[in-house]
Amino acid sequence: MSPQPHFLVLTFPLQGHIAPALRLARRLLAAAPDALVTFSTTEAAHRRMFPAEAGAPDGGGGDDCRLELLPFSDGTEAGYVRSSTDPAAFTDYMASFQAAGARSVGELVDAFAERGRPVTRVVYTMLLPWAADVARDKGLPSALYWIQPAAVLAVYYHYFHGHAAVVADHRHDPSFLVRFPGLPPQAVRDLPSFLTESTDPSDFFHSVYTTVRDLFDTLDRETPRATVLVNTCQELEEGALAAVGAYDALPIGPVLPSGDEAGLFKQDGVKYMEWLDAKPADSVVYVAFGSLARMEREQLDELLLGLEETGRPYLCVVRKDIKAELADGEASETEMDAPLKNGMVVEW
């Protein structure tokens, strides 16, 4: 008798990874009524996302008893502590993350087997290539969940399969066109910055570049060929999906937000949507620096001043923790404190 399907969904602790991974977990539950799903990210991110469940011994998943929320360890108590003065801290974190994460996830898989709820497949997002190695060691199949478009997957694939030198030779020529198989010509300025800037070992995100490189090495080693779940649809990106024919790339999207999901940061209601609706189409400058970047107060002041001087409407997204840090700083009035004529600053 085959065991009950049990998907272990693992994700890196970034908002842009957690949200689509959690959507996929809920989609799996809807598509397979007899399946179990365990959603897992690092302990620090888990506490922020699910404060009510963080202290629950069974990692309860809310209304659906088939969804379990359990963290794995990245080797730290607080996760990555952002630093604007020590870029090496992120590199060190990524190195320890891999070792501690692999060990912790392996222990999690063993614990499920002992509980009589064995994992039957591991699903992981792009910065966790070691998850596939853990699955292989445990005799489990795995699948990469590619949260970006298939075209981006194809760009990365062909970069790491014969086109890295071309990009490196022309990285300072933004208009140079790179011709990846199966894709329209791509200008260097339109390529992911990880492939043009982060190849330098001194770059802050060099460890991300090496992790993505390791990811494709991992996929290439899979036998039979690797399974990649892509958040897209066949009709939208048929050519891009065909361009990664070395893998079993399955379009499963679009995996859209439900509107009530958890996240690392809370958004500012609907007021910014009303503000955007009042602006002409294609007129708003969008500014956001994601989950990792850390800005000093002077940097944010200068950014907002520059945006104001453009005369263009703009929407600037600032993480709530950064905004709180800035508010606790010096009391002198700055651009962030002053009324904004052309834009809006919202929390993430």
TrEMBL record:
SUPFAM superfamilies reported for this sequence: UDP-Glycosyltransferase/glycogen phosphorylase
Highest taxon listed in the record's lineage: Eukaryota
Gene Ontology terms for molecular function: quercetin 3-O-glucosyltransferase activity; quercetin 7-O-glucosyltransferase activity
Xref: PANTHER family: GLUCOSYL/GLUCURONOSYL TRANSFERASES, GLYCOSYLTRANSFERASE
Family under the similarity heading: Belongs to the UDP-glycosyltransferase family.
Protein name: Glycosyltransferase
Source organism (scientific name): Triticum turgidum subsp. durum
Lineage, highest ranks first: Eukaryota, Viridiplantae, Streptophyta, Embryophyta, Tracheophyta
